[in-house]
């Protein structure tokens, strides 16, 4: 009992081949789009890779890039095959390649689906990576003279300005680290020495933030220092405090930014996957089975049947499972019925007779 | 004696018509390009019109938009005429319009040259507009509670961060104006009273700049206040400190930005001009080659194409004569009416 059996006439087969040729070319374009999306995501992640602790999430754009390239190649081959399928003679050229081509297409559509799902599942890993990365970047903010860390100050300042955020979770994260380098602290000043002594690690902590935390929406000049003491500033009321600095944390800001990008990309990739499976893969399978049946019937002009699976789903699954089981058995010699069988003795061989056949005239 | 005569047979005429039609399509694309550049320039000017006191002249972008539209229309019409020139019946429809159309094309080409020149010249009035606008903008920085000026602070901050500039010519421009509003000054503090008392206008001036002047590339945290006082900060010399705040003035930064846009547009219009001239000449040849057929009934006969029917001098004298004749035509009519009026008057007086 075949699954999805349809009968095709010769003209219908040719039409199917032409339509599939066009669909394969469209698939080459969608493959290029996949490649482009992967490249775009990779560039976006690499833009701010300094504030991420590890670039593990780069496997998502890499997957999209390789799948996109594979899609272009496979669908280009597919368009060639489908064009030749319109003519039964040319189809014979591709007879042996058809089945592997369909298997490849099936696997690459599975990869496309995996890529789309990855886009949605990577959020928690990104969150962790951003938290650790931002914490380290803030710690190294003052190390503008250490090779390898000298650009972290500039990166973090530009990040806070562009994404309108301050600190890791909140602007108060800046109160807990020393972001002014010892090079710019006057160690002979008693105020400085007191502050350094007042905490366990000997760090110069203060209740102030860098200039990049300042909000452009504030109606008053930015207040960066003595933030824990509102009375130290003239008319510094609740509303002024709300507007003075950026309230959002940079971890949240970057997470929202990347999640937004990846959701859009994931949706596009899902649509491409639907297009590939429903139209291209199904169409090519029908074309392959119809052409093979035409060859089997021997008459290129006749009708033939096309299907998705020759037997029902359960039977096909059993059959493939048995193949895989028997693959494993190739090293077990005992079951081979051709071994250790005594051959017939030469004298027992029966000579062949000539048989008369009456031919009616 | 016609100018630049070229002999045409049918094959050559067809080839000419096809080439000119093809060139007209490129000219249409060029027209669309000029239109979109004019729109882009207009939008860029609008975006920052606050910094120019809403005084900026939109003459150049409006001109570019108009030229782009006219070019598109003209070149599409010219392309249609070339396409139809291969069919004598269709071409006869367009024939009477061609002469005035070609004259109009010539005028348009001259206007295109003028536009290109303007693109390079309009930089100068823009400079003055920017200087005036930025000076006022800085004055109104603190007026975030005055309607109509409450967004000036945000606009200036964003501009200084985007264009990496500070003040009008230099960051010291901020030392000469009061950019902290009186609402946020504690008038009971001695320091505030001293500062206000120390200058003629009673303004709170300080040697500090807003945070948007800070340079993120600086290795040390930004020093915004008491910038000229070396002893207020450890290991700081304001004469040698280069990375602390942006050194460039915003007028220079904005001028080079807009100047760059205008130069690009001017260069593009200059390169598009030869194309426009070429299609005009091409259409003139198509028209002349189809009007001088040796045998008007037979389209396969030979013909001559020319640039001008007579020599340049003769064409010029012809045009002058025509204009004089037009001018005299009105005078003769007036004289005739006077001659008719007087006998009647004489008749009545008796």
TrEMBL record, chain A:
Listed SUPFAM superfamilies: Tetraspanin
Protein name: Peripherin 2-like b
GO molecular function: phosphoribosylamine-glycine ligase activity
Cellular component annotations (GO), alphabetically ordered: plasma membrane
Regions that span the bilayer: 20-45, 57-78, 98-120, 265-287
UniProt family annotation: Belongs to the PRPH2/ROM1 family.
Keywords noted in UniProt: Membrane, Transmembrane, Transmembrane helix
Organism encoding this protein: Fundulus heteroclitus
Topology in the lipid bilayer: Multi-pass membrane protein
Subcellular location: Membrane
Pfam entry (one): Tetraspanin
GO BP terms in the entry: purine nucleobase biosynthetic process; visual perception
Top-level taxon of origin: Eukaryota
InterPro entries: Peripherin/rom-1, Peripherin_LEL, PRibGlycinamide_synth_CS, Tetraspanin/Peripherin, Tetraspanin_EC2_sf
Automatic annotation (TrEMBL), chain B:
Protein family according to the UniProt entry: Belongs to the PRPH2/ROM1 family.
Subcellular location field: Membrane
Pfam entry (one): Tetraspanin
Top-level taxon: Eukaryota
Main subcellular location of this protein, as a coarse class: membrane
Spans through the membrane: 20-41, 62-81, 101-121
Protein name: Peripherin-2
Keywords (A to Z) from UniProt: Cell adhesion, Disulfide bond, Glycoprotein, Membrane, Transmembrane, Transmembrane helix
Annotated GO CC locations: plasma membrane
Membrane-protein topology: Multi-pass membrane protein
InterPro entries membership: Peripherin/rom-1 (IPR000830), Peripherin/rom-1_CS (IPR018498), Peripherin_LEL (IPR042026), Tetraspanin/Peripherin (IPR018499), Tetraspanin_EC2_sf (IPR008952)
Region (Disordered): 327-350
UniProt record, GO biological process: cell adhesion; visual perception
């Amino acid at each position: 009992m075949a699954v999805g059996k349809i009968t095709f006439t010769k003209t219908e087969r040719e039409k199917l081949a032409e339509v599939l040729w066009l669909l394969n070319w469209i698939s080459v374009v969608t493959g290029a789009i996949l490649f482009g999306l992967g490249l775009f995501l990779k560039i976006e992640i690499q833009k701010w890779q300094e504030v991420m602790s590890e670039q593990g999430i780069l496997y998502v754009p890499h997957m999209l890039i390789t799948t996109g390239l594979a899609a272009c190649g496979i669908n280009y081959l597919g368009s060639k095959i489908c064009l030749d399928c319109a003519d039964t003679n040319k189809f014979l050229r591709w007879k042996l390649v058809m089945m592997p081509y369909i298997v490849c297409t099936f696997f690459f559509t599975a990869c496309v689906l995996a890529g789309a799902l990855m886009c949605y599942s990577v959020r928690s890993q990104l969150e962790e990576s951003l938290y650790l990365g931002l914490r380290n970047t803030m710690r190294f903010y003052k190390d503008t003279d250490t090779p390898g860390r000298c650009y972290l100050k500039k990166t973090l300042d530009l990040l806070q300005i562009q994404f309108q955020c301050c600190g890791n979770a909140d602007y108060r994260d800046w109160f807990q680290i020393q972001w002014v380098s010892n090079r710019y602290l006057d160690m002979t000043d008693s105020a400085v020495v007191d502050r350094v002594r007042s905490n366990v690690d000997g760090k110069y902590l203060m209740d102030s933030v860098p200039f990049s935390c300042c909000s452009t929406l504030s109606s008053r000049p930015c207040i960066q220092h003595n933030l824990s003491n509102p009375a130290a500033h003239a008319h510094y009321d609740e509303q002024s405090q709300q507007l003075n600095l950026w309230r959002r944390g940079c971890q949240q800001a970057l997470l929202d930014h990347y999640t937004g990008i990846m959701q859009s990309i994931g949706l596009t990739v899902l649509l491409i996957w639907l297009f590939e499976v429903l139209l291209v893969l199904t169409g090519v399978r029908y074309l392959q089975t119809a052409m093979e049946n035409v060859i089997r019937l021997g008459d290129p002009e006749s009708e033939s049947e096309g299907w998705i699976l020759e037997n029902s789903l359960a039977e096909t699954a059993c059959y493939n499972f048995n193949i895989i089981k028997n693959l494993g058995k190739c090293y077990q010699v005992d079951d081979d019925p051709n071994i250790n069988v005594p051959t017939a003795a030469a004298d027992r061989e029966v000579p062949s007779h000539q048989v008369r056949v009456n031919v009616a005239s | 004696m016609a100018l630049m005569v070229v002999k045409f047979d049918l094959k050559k005429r067809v080839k000419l018509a096809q080439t000119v039609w093809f060139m007209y399509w490129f000219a249409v694309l060029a027209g669309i390009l000029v239109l979109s550049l004019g729109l882009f320039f207009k939008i860029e000017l609008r975006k920052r019109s606050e910094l120019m006191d809403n005084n900026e002249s939109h003459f150049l972008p409006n001109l570019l938009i108009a030229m782009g539209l006219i070019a598109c229309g003209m070149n599409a019409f010219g392309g249609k005429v070339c396409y139809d020139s291969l069919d004598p019946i269709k071409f006869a429809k367009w024939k009477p319009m061609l002469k005035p159309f070609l004259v109009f094309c010539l005028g348009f080409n001259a206007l295109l040259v003028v536009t290109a020149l303007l693109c390079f010249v309009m930089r100068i009035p823009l400079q003055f507009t920017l200087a005036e606008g930025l000076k006022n903008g800085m004055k109104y920085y603190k007026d975030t509670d005055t309607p109509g000026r409450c967004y000036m602070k945000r606009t200036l901050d964003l501009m200084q961060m985007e264009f990496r500039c500070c003040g009008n010519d230099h960051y010291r421009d901020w030392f000469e104006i009061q950019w902290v509003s009186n609402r946020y000054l504690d008038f009971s503090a001695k320091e505030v009273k001293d500062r206000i008392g120390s200058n003629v206008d009673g303004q709170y001036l300080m040697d500090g700049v807003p945070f948007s002047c800070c340079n993120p590339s600086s290795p040390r945290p930004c020093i915004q206040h008491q910038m000229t006082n070396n002893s207020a900060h450890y290991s700081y010399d304001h004469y040698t400190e280069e990375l602390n705040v942006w050194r460039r003035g915003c007028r220079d930064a904005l001028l080079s930005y807009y100047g760059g846009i205008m130069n690009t547009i001017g260069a593009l219009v200059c390169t598009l001009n030869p194309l426009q001239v070429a299609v005009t000449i091409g259409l003139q040849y198509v028209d002349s080659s189809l009007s001088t057929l040796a045998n008007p009934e037979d389209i396969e006969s030979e013909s001559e194409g020319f640039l001008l029917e007579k020599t340049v001098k003769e064409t010029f004298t012809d045009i002058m004569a025509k204009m004089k004749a037009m001018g005299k035509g009105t005078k003769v009519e007036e004289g005739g009416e006077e001659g008719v009026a007087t006998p009647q008057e004489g008749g009545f007086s008796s």
